[in-house]
Amino acid sequence: MKTCKGIKSISLTACIFLLFSIFTTLEAFAAEYYIDPVSGKDSDTGLSQALAWATISYAMEQLSAGDTLFLMDGTFTESLNITISGKPGDPITFKALNDGKVIIDGKNSRIPLLIEGTDANHKTYIDVEGIVCRNSNSDIVQIKRSDNISIKRVSAYNADPDGNFVAFSIAYDCTNILVEDCAASGTGRKQYNAFSDSKVTFRRCWGRWIDHQWGNWNSCLDIYGADDCIVENCIVTMDSTVTKKVHGIEIVNQSNPDADRNKIYGNIVYGINDYGYIVASAGGHHIRDNKHVDNVAIMEGNSKGGFLLKADGNWTGDRLTLVGTSDVDLVRVEANPFGEDPDFQIRGVLRNSVLLSGDVGIKITSSPLIKSFTNKYNNLCSLAIPYSGRASQGAGEAAIKDTIPSFDTVKYGKGAYLIRPANLKGKGENGADIGAEILYQYIDGILHRDDHHRLWPWQMEDRIFAETGVSVTWEAKGGIWKTLNGVYPEN
Questions:
Q1: Cys bridge to 102: 71, 203, 440, 447, which one at CB 3.0-4.6 A?
Q2: pTM for this predicted structure
Q3: What's the CA angle centered on 307, arms 301 and 312, to 5 degrees?
Q4: Sheet holding 218-224: strands in order across?
Q5: Which of 407, 423, 429 lies closest to 480 in space, CA to CA?
Q6: Rounded CA gap, 359 and 375, in Å?
Q7: How many Å is the Cα radius of gyration of the chain?
């Protein structure tokens, strides 16, 4: 009997010891540290604000999977070069203690934020939140050969203007990358770019193109030879002084792999002087199964057009709102001359969309590579030439061709085009609504139409205005809306 009691006692002690070991081990892998660019010391422990470290390079050597490094207010003049990885369930987090109050300044001689693995050893499970990056000698935020990376509430300004450099560059076999609630502006060939990747998500990002001195084919957001990416609720525009041609959001490839199954949902392009949206191939690989749903392009001034389709074996456009002025082709379908390879044959459908104002509504050029393009239940209104080339009136379009969409631009300004016209609801294919609505958030391609997921006012409104002097929301300060009164139902 005593032996049994002894065994029970030992078992209980062992259990207590085991639990203590587990908790202390977990605590060791979930430490919080601080770094202070003003008064920190690398000789301190880093375990509190009063004992913060001084340098990022020193902190990088101390961190382990599950740790969080809080960056205190101030300007860092060394790169946030993340050389370590987290683990599934235990990411390494780099977070501004106060959102937007931490600046990583490259001083035009270094990359402010760099996460770069190798072909054999990708960087993984890293979260970065709340910082401002600026003045790079290359890309501003550069992520290469990395997986499971989250970049949230990060702003990036002024990539190197004299090379092929980008504000947010995700490149070379990255996968499962999230760029959310971010902002980009200043110099650089592109604001956002996913190059030769898969499963990259740009969500609620804002970009404003200003200047670039190297090369042509400038754009705001590119899915470049990347598959299974999502661009949702992003806004791209450009400064009114820009004279170079700039595209809005594009899916394209060249000598890199395919650009398939990308989803472009609930985005806004305005003020761009070339095409708002492009799907194109410059050679070598096919593009298939890309979707554009609930997108708006407001093409003003000397813009070329709303949508240019030059490649895709199975493209879908649904519930778009494309608004133009004179000399603008709202939808243009043409083919690049790559022969009769079926990978480059264009097949697509455009439905339930508003094409308002401008010169040409839908233009389909003559090419043997355009095998099938169907337009149906679209509202083409106030156009000099509704259909051009091989295009002709599609099913359901005759009944609504004279319906002027009920966009109240006097009250809402450009924001009116983000509200689906009341007089076109239920008039689309199988009773669908016609035109885009961009009032609520898409998350992973799913629309969440409830009060908790309202898009407006813009989530990064105050940060972006403080950093750039430009409002995303309010027209009086460069944004979209004159007012939000009446946009959302009252609780």
A1: 71
A2: 0.92
A3: 160
A4: 80-82, 113-116, 141-144, 166-171, 190-195, 218-224, 246-253, 275-281, 305-309, 329-333, 360-364, 385-389
A5: 407
A6: 18
A7: 25
